[in-house]
Amino acid sequence: MVVGQFRQETHLLVIGGGPGGCAAAQRAAELGVETMLIDAAPAPPAGLSQAALRMARDVIRLAESAAVLGVEFAQPKLDPTRLADWTRDAHTLRAHHLEQQCNDAGVELTRGTARFEDARQVIVHGGENARLRFKRAIIATGSRMIPPPADWPGSPRISTWLPLDRLPETLLVIGAGALALETADACAALGCRVSLVTSEPRLLPEADADLVEVLAERLAKSLDALSTGTAVTNLRAVSEGIEAQFKGGALAPKRRVFDHVLVLLGQRPHTDGLDLTKAQLDVRPDGSIPVDDQLRTANPRLLAVGDATGEPFVAHKAISQGRVAAEVVAGRDSVFDAKAIPCAAWTDPPLAWCGLTEDQAQRSNVAHRVCKSGAGCKPPDAAGTGDGFVKLILEPDSGLVLGMGMAGRGAADVIGEGVLAIEMGAVATDLASVVHAYPQLSALISEAAQQAAT
User: I need a surface site. Which of 116, 127, 335, 401 has the fewest CB within 10 A?
Assistant: First the structure.
């Protein structure tokens, strides 16, 4: 190769090495398509990983719950340095894993960021400074956190990630989504004094209110403050940290000072910087790329998968779409027609849901019936905490499964049964006849389904 800028050609160019891009590149190579993948050069992690926080939280909470069995441990002692080291090591391992996957699959990996020059060519910056020409391309650039408002102070104490070097003593989390709840819950378990505020009228608005109530009860006990319908009207850097002022909700009109403010207002597709207009592509106002059921964009040479196509921003959707897109490029008649995509909040207790929610059914005037098991009596979940709860959304006459939601240990694993039921067109009697392991959370599915026959 020529030193400096050079030009290469490939049949398929995959832009982005996240779950969707990696799945697309591997599947295309399996099908004999010459494939190149572009991914940004590894950079040090900006903050503590969610995985590290969740694992530390779960260990602490499990130790606490063991006391009812007569098993007691010493008070946990957190070493933020080792937590940060684990985050860095995991980050490095993921980068090496991508390189190994590409090498094993026969995919050429190029480090850098891509920008379209036209509908057939990109230039890669920050790596080999190459011009790459392609026949087809798959855009899998993922999403990024919505940044704090531009008129807020530009302080390192206000960010979309937790600092690596320390765990704040007092933390303000702004947001109502799964990531905000997971982070607030984990930091409280690790010893932070956490306040969670959101301008939304309730937490996790995309899930049913009764499902979220199980979590809200737990958070109300573990957090310093939990306030919905609350706007942050002003943030100001002071010598002690960040002073926040609130409007509405339980915290208004109080002013409080926090060591750190974590702004978790959601995500948006990370498509800016690609120069998509040069590729003859238009995007929606939120940055997402419209696609058809074969993941093709308005430009027939280009496909898009995962977060780049819009909500939900979940890795499993990206992986499934990535494989479909690769098969389409290879000439197969594949389509992405998922009837249900599972969503989860890895809180304590975890929540999970799929298909039609009760709130959605009511807003859309869809005839439905709700069957619950565990609500009220709260049978023990896998950890014996008594938070198990399953609900089914059914078609009234046929009992067709339209949706499922649950709270309790293992919810994110068990929700796959609801996805399968919706995809297979199962009815309540099908679920009622399944023998589940008792007393696990899955047993509540058949109990809820049996109510449909009464």
Answer: 335
